[in-house]
Amino acid sequence: VQLQASGGGLVQPGGSLRLSCSASSSISRLYMAWFRRPPGKEREFVASISWSGKNNIYANSVRGRFTASKDNAKNTVVLQTDSLRPGDTALYFCAAVPSVNGDVSSAQSYNFWGQGTQVTVSS
Predict the structure, then answer these.
(1) pLDDT by residue (tens digit) across 44-57?
(2) Do the beta carbons of residue 1 and residue 114 sit within 8 Å?
């Protein structure tokens, strides 16, 4: 499956962005996730989305501000990012795997990756 992330941009602190990840084929049986790579730092976990889209896991740094959702009919996952902070500035990636046998927050658990979309939070 090919993944394409979009929706990034420049936003002021406290603002919001809606990131989307479109898949080239069905995602109904894929476990999805969002990761990000801040400037000069390693890639880090943001959120994971279960098959149903109802059992999602969030990194502590974004919990309560970001919301991940899945639309199997549209083969799309969305990351709604609210109350953005400068520390959220990063290249955001979506990822997928048929099943997760290990840590859902580990990038090594996923074998499909999309191109990133840049989020910059600055005044």
Answers:
(1) 999 999 888 888 99
(2) no
